[in-house]
Write a structure and sequence with these properties.
single chain; alpha/beta; Aspartate Aminotransferase, domain 1
C-alpha cells in the first residue's frame, strides 16, 4: 500500500539572502521600523516600496498581520458601527472577525459551485441590504469573475476591499489581484505565498485611505518617514482624527520578506506545476469533482480544493481518516465542528441574525482542502494524488 511520509506543515527555509539581512538587522539592534537615520530607508520602507511596485499601486503599508490589515482597511475606509458589509460565507474566520472588530455587521453571501462568491446572490443582497461595502475574499486562491464583480460594485456604489491572503501573484485577464478594489489586504503568515511567520500588507490608490491606515498602524507623528505613502499635506487633518491601533511590521520580518518577494513569480510557477499534477489525477476519477479554472484566471495554487458529490458526511470523514492513515492530510470544510483553520459560517455565532444558507451548506458538505507546500516535489504530488484517488475510489 502506497504511503506518504512528508509533513504538510513544513515550509521551505528562508532564502539565505533573507537570513543574512535578518542577521544584519539583529546585529544593528534597529528592529523598529522608525529607528532610522534622517532620510534613511529601513528594511520595512524598502519592502513597502518594492511591494507597491510589484502590485503597480501608489501606496503600500506593511502590517503586523493580514488580519490586522483587514481591520485597518475597514477603519480607513470609513466603516462605522452598525454598517452592513457584504462578505463571503465561505471564507476563513479572520474575515468576518475583521468586520465584527470594526463594529459592522457581516452580510453573508453564498458560495458558488466553483468555490467563488455566488455573484447572483451578491447582486441580490447588495440591492436588498443597502450595504456600501464589500469585503471580497478570494478564498483559497479562487478568483471570481472580476469583470462582473466590478460591474456590481459600480451599480450599487460598493467600496471594495479585496482579501488577497491567498492570491498574491494571481491575476484576472492580466490585471493583478488586489488592484481591482479600493483597498487590498495581503498576508505573509507562514502558510501564505511569502513567509514571515505573521505579517501582511494593505494597498490602496486612495491617498486619504492610506493616510488613515498609516496613522492607525501606529506611526505616531512619524508619517513623513513612509516612502510608499501620500504627501504629508494629506495627513494635515487626518493625523488629529485617527486613533493609533499599533500594528506595524518590524524590520526583522521585512528583511526576510524582501528576497521572497523578489522570487515570487518563480515560486508561483512551482506551485502551479504541482497543482496541475494533482488536478490531472483527480480528473481521472469520476467520484472527484474539481472545477475547471477559467482562462481569464491566472491563479497561484498553494492549496487544492475538490468535492466528492454524493458522498455522505460519514463517507467524507472516512476518506479523511483513511487518507490521514496513509500520510495525506485533508481538511473538510463541511464539518459542523470548527477544526484547525477550517470553520463553517454557522460556527461564527457572534454574528447576530445568522442566516440559513442551504446552498453554501450543500457545497461545503462535500468540499475537501489540501495544502501544497513547496517542500513537496512533483513526484510527491503524483504519489499524493494516487493515494487520494485510491481511497476515494475504494
Amino acid at each position: 500500500m502506497k504511503q506518504f511520509t512528508k509533513s504538510f506543515t513544513q515550509q521551505e527555509s528562508i532564502p539565505e539572502t533573507g537570513i543574512e539581512a535578518a542577521v544584519e538587522v539583529m546585529r544593528s539592534g534597529r528592529l523598529h521600523r522608525y529607528n532610522t537615520l534622517p532620510d534613511e530607508k529601513s528594511e520595512t520602507d524598502l519592502l513597502e516600496i518594492e511591494f507597491a511596485e510589484y502590485q503597480g499601486v501608489p501606496y503600500a503599508l506593511a502590517c503586523s498581520s493580514g488580519g490586522y490589515a483587514l481591520h485597518v482597511a475597514m477603519r480607513a475606509a470609513g466603516v462605522e458601527a452598525g454598517d452592513k458589509v457584504l462578505c463571503n460565507a465561505f471564507t476563513l474566520a479572520p474575515v468576518p472577525g475583521a468586520i465584527h472588530n470594526s463594529g459592522a455587521v457581516p452580510v453573508l453571501i453564498d458560495v458558488a459551485e466553483d468555490y467563488c462568491i455566488d455573484l447572483d446572490d451578491l447582486e441580490r443582497k447588495a440591492e436588498a441590504s443597502g450595504a456600501k461595502y464589500l469585503m471580497l475574499s478570494h478564498m483559497r486562491g479562487h478568483l471570481a469573475d472580476m469583470d462582473r464583480i466590478m460591474a456590481i460594485c459600480e451599480r450599487y456604489s460598493l467600496f471594495l476591499i479585496e482579501d488577497c491572503a491567498h492570491t498574491m501573484g494571481a491575476s484576472w485577464n492580466g490585471k493583478k489581484s488586489g488592484t481591482f478594489g479600493d483597498v487590498a489586504c495581503f498576508s505573509t503568515q507562514t502558510y501564505k505565498h511569502i513567509n514571515s511567520g505573521e505579517g501582511g500588507f494593505l494597498t490602496t490608490r486612495h491617498p486619504e485611505v492610506m493616510a488613515r491606515a498609516i496613522m492607525h498602524s501606529g506611526s505616531y507623528m512619524l508619517f513623513e518617514r513612509h516612502f510608499a505613502a501620500p504627501p504629508k499635506e494629506v495627513f494635515e487633518q487626518i493625523r488629529y482624527e485617527t486613533p493609533n491601533y499599533s500594528g506595524r511590521m518590524d524590520n526583522l520580518r521585512a528583511a526576510i520578506l524582501r528576497p521572497q518577494l523578489a522570487d515570487l513569480e518563480t515560486q508561483c510557477e512551482r506551485w502551479n506545476s504541482r497543482y496541475r499534477i494533482l488536478e490531472a489525477l483527480f480528473n481521472q476519477s469520476s467520484a472527484i469533482n474539481i472545477p475547471a479554472r477559467p482562462d481569464a484566471e491566472h491563479f497561484v495554487a498553494s492549496s487544492i480544493q475538490f468535492s466528492l458529490p454524493g458522498f455522505t458526511a460519514e463517507e467524507i470523514q472516512e476518506v479523511v481518516k483513511r487518507c490521514g492513515e496513509r500520510g495525506v492530510i485533508l481538511k473538510w470544510f463541511g464539518d459542523a465542528i470548527p477544526r484547525d483553520y477550517t470553520s463553517r459560517y454557522d460556527s461564527w455565532r457572534y454574528i447576530e441574525d445568522m442566516p440559513q444558507l442551504p446552498k453554501t451548506e450543500r457545497i461545503l458538505s462535500t468540499l475537501l482542502d489540501m495544502r501544497i507546500p513547496l517542500t513537496f516535489s512533483e513526484e510527491d504530488c503524483a504519489l499524493i494524488g494516487e493515494i487520494i484517488v485510491e481511497v476515494v475510489n475504494g
